[in-house]
Design brief:
- The chain is α+β, with helices and mostly antiparallel strands.
- The protein contains six helices and eleven strands.
- It has a single domain, classed as Phosphatidylethanolamine-binding Protein, CATH 3.90.280.10.
- The protein is globular and about 50 Å long.
- Bound molecules: 2-acetamido-2-deoxy-beta-D-glucopyranose (9 copies).
- It comes from Lachnellula suecica.
- InterPro entries: PEBP (IPR008914), PEBP-like_sf (IPR036610), PEBP_euk (IPR035810).
- Pfam families: PBP (PF01161).
């Protein structure tokens, strides 16, 4: 349960929006998100190569109950210039619970949200890969929903997780009869280069090349030196990675299982829009 003091502090700090300004559904309660030991909070801009394996997620207070995490990108460029941006579902994972002990990530002590029952994601994690097409900076937004004992909400979320493109977090949350408890976002820009120099095209139509993406991820894994200290007993879950995503040790020991998807899953998940262009 959230203490009233946490809520008071959160609202006192409401000048910072923890979901992006204007994004709905909004939350001003901080969800801590990190890739390895790198914090991904307050809209920080991260290199694409650092964010291809699902992050660790936690809260400063231990939560009672079970939760569902949603990650969306509300900045998908319109198909035709001048059109409206749309939303893409990047990840939806249910059955998360607070670990019993804290983990220190990037200097922040949090109770990691873990998936001790290894429940399969409603939508497996797809790493950010914004194309070089306006808007080139995308705000990857995480929402934590309280789905404790609510099978109807879970049924509704699971059904919604089937379609990633033209997603509507605000409608999906509302239709599930839920509200957002914690939120966060981080940025990834098309301009951000990857060490492999491979995946991103430079003129708007990034070819969907699984090989290029895989090499970027591998380069990241081999150069990662992130160190995470953890006091969570029994929370180590080996990433269910496709063989194209060789996660570093730091990234493969988070608690959220089913976190990694191979490129095959990415393309399958994207369905029709994967045909020629990645618009993540
Ligand atoms: C989530 O819902 C459960 C059941 O209603 C409740 O016990 C728990 O306190 C809620 N969590 C938060 C953080 O409000
Ligand atoms: C949430 O994060 C912001 C920015 O880091 C910080 O100023 C604020 O104190 C945090 N709020 C809580 C409740 O931890
Ligand atoms: C993240 O990107 C958005 C959209 O471009 C921008 O408004 C925001 O300032 C960025 N956040 C940071 C911390 O730079
Ligand atoms: C936390 O401890 C309680 C009591 O020992 C146990 O029932 C529960 O499964 C533990 N939770 C996790 C996530 O390990
Ligand atoms: C979840 O997966 C981990 C790692 O594969 C395994 O050690 C653990 O026993 C599994 N837990 C359950 C409840 O299946
Ligand atoms: C996206 O969904 C909205 C309704 O939420 C619908 O009006 C619109 O036509 C859809 N766009 C596409 C490209 O499917
Ligand atoms: C990214 O880095 C690679 C290798 O250093 C370089 O060839 C490429 O031009 C860079 N791309 C951008 C968009 O800066
Ligand atoms: C842009 O795309 C065209 C074909 O679509 C290609 O010929 C050209 O080399 C690309 N330019 C850059 C800078 O990648
Ligand atoms: C990776 O997958 C490909 C095709 O699915 C397979 O040919 C290759 O042997 C696999 N590599 C490893 C290291 O498992």
């Amino acid at each position: 349960m959230l203490s009233s003091s946490l809520i008071a502090v959160a609202f006192a700090g409401a000048a910072t929006a923890f979901t992006p300004v204007g994004f709905e559904p909004a939350s001003t309660n901080n969800l801590t998100v990190a890739f390895g030991n790198t914090l991904a909070i307050n809209g920080v801009n991260l290199p694409k190569a650092e964010v291809q394996t699902a992050p660790t997620v936690g809260t400063t207070e231990k939560l009672v109950g079970t939760y569902t995490l949603m990650m969306v990108d509300p900045d998908i460029p319109p198909a035709t210039a001048g059109g409206a941006t749309s939303e893409l579902l990047h990840w939806m994972q249910s059955d998360l619970v607070s670990a019993n002990t804290t983990t220190t990530i990037g200097g922040m002590k949090v109770f990691e949200l873990i998936n001790p029952t290894n429940t399969t994601a409603f939508a497996s994690y797809i790493g950010p890969a914004p194309p070089n097409k306006s808007p080139t900076t995308h705000r990857y937004t995480q929402l934590l929903l309280n789905t404790t004992g609510s099978s109807s909400a879970l049924t509704s979320l699971k059904a919604a997780g089937v379609s990633r493109a033209n997603f509507s977090a605000v409608n999906v949350v509302k239709n599930a009869g839920l509200s957002v408890l914690f939120g966060n976002s981080f940025n990834v820009s098309a301009a951000t280069n990857t060490t492999a120099g491979a995946a991103s095209g430079t003129n708007g139509t990034t070819t969907a090349s699984g090989t290029a993406k895989a090499s970027g991820t591998a380069a990241k894994a081999s150069t990662s030196t992130a160190v995470r200290t953890t006091s969570v007993a029994g929370a180590t879950v080996t990433a269910a990675a496709g063989n194209s995503t060789t996660a570093s040790p730091a990234q493969s020991t988070g608690g959220v299982a089913g976190r990694t998807s191979g490129n095959e899953a990415i393309f399958a998940g994207l369905g029709a829009i994967a045909a020629a262009v990645i618009i993540l």
